[in-house]
Design a protein that fits this description.
It is a single chain. By secondary structure, the chain is of the alpha+beta class. The protein has one domain. 45% of the residues lie in helices and 34% in strands. The protein is built from two helices and five strands; from the N terminus they run αβββββα. The chain has a five-stranded antiparallel beta sheet with strand order 3-2-1-4-5. A hairpin with a 5-residue loop joins strand 1 and strand 2. Helix 1 packs antiparallel against helix 2. It starts with a helix and ends with a helix. This is DUF3592 domain-containing protein. It comes from Paractinoplanes abujensis. Keywords: Membrane, Transmembrane, Transmembrane helix.
């Protein structure tokens, strides 16, 4: 029973992270600044997956760099490819890549994992 509760709590936590990311992205789209960045490389993660690295310039002309919060075996974007970057005024360090394929993958991952953990916890609780 304890494991069932833990699984449900993990599922709710993961789903809430997805909701928080979605609301942040909506806020960036409505209130944020946007600029075009360029993919400059891929950061290899410990498991062998690669995250996209994007260089962009903020509203003050300061060059910035961001690394995607999502990584995979095959990067979403090729080096040299332009991408839209959004950030809130005064907070360019909190920038996000605003591309449909990047955001959809991230949100789907949170939803699937959140529902999966929660469903596993409920199924385990029902068996007891």
């Amino acid at each position: 029973m304890v494991l069932a509760v833990i699984l449900v709590l993990v599922g709710l936590f993961v789903a809430s992270r997805g909701v928080r990311e979605w609301t942040h992205l909506r806020r960036l789209r409505s209130e944020g600044r946007h600029t075009v960045g360029t993919v400059t490389g891929h950061e290899t993660k410990p498991g062998g997956s690669r995250a996209v690295i994007v260089a962009y310039t903020d509203e003050l002309g300061t060059p910035r760099q961001l690394t995607s919060n999502l990584s995979s075996g095959v990067p979403t974007f090729a080096v040299g490819e332009p991408v839209t970057v959004r950030y809130l005024a005064g907070d360019p360090a909190g920038a996000f890549i605003d591309e449909r394929r990047e955001n959809a993958r991230s949100l789907l991952l949170h939803v699937v994992l959140g529902l999966g953990f929660s469903a596993a916890g409920v199924a385990l609780a029902v068996q007891d």
